[in-house]
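Exercise 4. Each item below gives a protein and its sequence. For each, produce the structure-token representation.

Item: Abi-like protein (Streptomyces ardesiacus).
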Amino acid sequence: MSEKLPEWMVRAFSRLRLARYLRAARGNALVAERLYWWNVEASAALYGPLHCLELALRNALHRQLSWAYGRGDWWAVAPLNPNGQRLVAKARAKCERRRPVPAPPDDIVAELSFGFWASLVSGGSGYDRLFWVPTAHKAFPCYSGRRDTLYDGLWSLVLLRNRIMHHEPVHHRDLAADHAKIYRMLGYIDPELAKEARSMDRFPSVLASRPDALRGARTPRF
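Answer:
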């Protein structure tokens, strides 16, 4: 059993970060190294589907709320809770640091996070009555289930997206279920986009290749 990771890898990625992969590999440093690279490959392969979901969710909700409130900066009059207001103010300030004029709505929309948009489907602070019932449900034309079930699915993907974007381990998750959930959520918003995204999606082959990658029969690619 190999018990020592390459020094260059420890210098680049830190002993603390790599310790999680060593534990997953039961102390086998060679398997831990392969698992690290496979985790990067899997994260890269999930980026595309998550990209589609985040942008589709953002634009669908923004479109419906703009129509409902009759203005592109709907957040100026909508009953956002204090955290929502804080996130909008933060997005506006970030935009205006780059351009010292009042930030146009489209710039603020692009700056607001996946978590912000998913939160509009939550039941917190009355959002189920304030947003979901009158307006937000229209962003999901192919969904007829419960709001809380939809929110739980979206929020779990916000957490997955954040782990990927912060370079954290995802190899321990049920990634097949995560992947299926992305397309289920995307299909509720836009089935045509879901179909197109699937045609380019390489994640299933990456997931199937994990055993080969861990035994060294295949080198991960990203």
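Check: The chain has twelve helices and no strands.
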